[in-house]
Amino acid sequence: MSGARGRAFYDLEIYKEYEAISDLVWDEVESWSHWHKAVNGTQLIRAVDSIGANIAESVGRGHFKDSIKFLYYSRASLTESQHWLRRATRRGLVRSAFADQLRNASVIVLKR
Question: Does residue 101 contact residue 84 with C-beta atoms inside 8 Å?
Answer without folding.
Answer: no
